[in-house]
């Protein structure tokens, strides 16, 4: 997704933004529809907290501290992968991975610190490979 010109120096949108937005919208909708009937819950306070959460979330989008926002999103994504059980394929290789291994047999394969195989692009020079499992960045020289 390409950033507009006015967002050039700002962080922008990420997965954490969309999840927080969904939770805040859900809380606001519940506050307006269901929670106003519950006697001991102040539905106005729930809606106000949802709006406050949206303002904080919007401040993440317009933040200039990009490194900190990337770290927040990476920690959230790793946590979400642990919760949903998407920590890789449990050592099993798919048919597509087997075909790639046969095609890329002559190419050197690097390993991340988590054990994931990283295959560089064709070409020469310095490349940055991002691990699909843990998200760490690995710079290699060919």
Give a structural overview.
The protein is 46% helix and 10% strand. The protein has 142 residues and is mainly alpha-helical. It has two domains: 80 residues, no CATH class; 40 residues, no CATH class. A hairpin with a 5-residue loop joins strand 1 and strand 2. Helix 1 runs antiparallel to helix 2.
SSE arrangement:
Blueprint: H1 15-33, H2 43-61, H3 66-84, H4 95-103, E1 110-111, E2 117-118, E3 126-130, E4 137-141
Antiparallel strand pairs: 1-2, 3-4
Question: Summary?
Answer:
The protein has 142 residues and is mainly alpha-helical. The protein has 4 helices and 4 strands; from the N terminus they run H-H-H-H-E-E-E-E. Strand 1 and strand 2 (117-118) form a beta hairpin.
Features:
elongated, two-stranded antiparallel sheet, single chain, 46% helix, 142 residues, 2 domains, mainly alpha
Physical arrangement of strands within the biggest beta sheet: 1-2
Report the strand count. Answer: 4
Summarize the main sheet: 2 strands, antiparallel
* Residue runs with pLDDT of under 50 for 5 or more positions: none
Helix count from the secondary structure assignment: 4
Please trace the helix and strand order, writing H or E for each element.
Answer: HHHHEEEE
């Amino acid at each position: 997704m390409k950033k507009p010109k006015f967002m050039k120096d700002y962080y922008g949108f990420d997965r954490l933004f969309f999840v927080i937005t969904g939770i805040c919208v859900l809380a606001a909708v519940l506050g307006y529809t269901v929670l106003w009937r519950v006697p001991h819950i102040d539905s106005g306070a729930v809606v106000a907290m949802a709006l406050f959460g949206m303002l904080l979330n919007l401040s993440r989008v317009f933040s200039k501290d990009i490194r900190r926002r990337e770290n927040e999103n990476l920690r959230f994504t790793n946590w979400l992968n642990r919760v949903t059980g998407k920590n890789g394929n449990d050592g099993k290789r798919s048919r597509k991975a087997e075909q790639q291994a046969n095609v890329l047999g002559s190419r050197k394969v690097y390993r991340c610190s988590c054990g994931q195989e990283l295959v560089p692009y064709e070409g020469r020079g310095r490349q940055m490979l991002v691990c699909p499992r843990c998200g760490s960045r690995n710079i290699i020289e060919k």
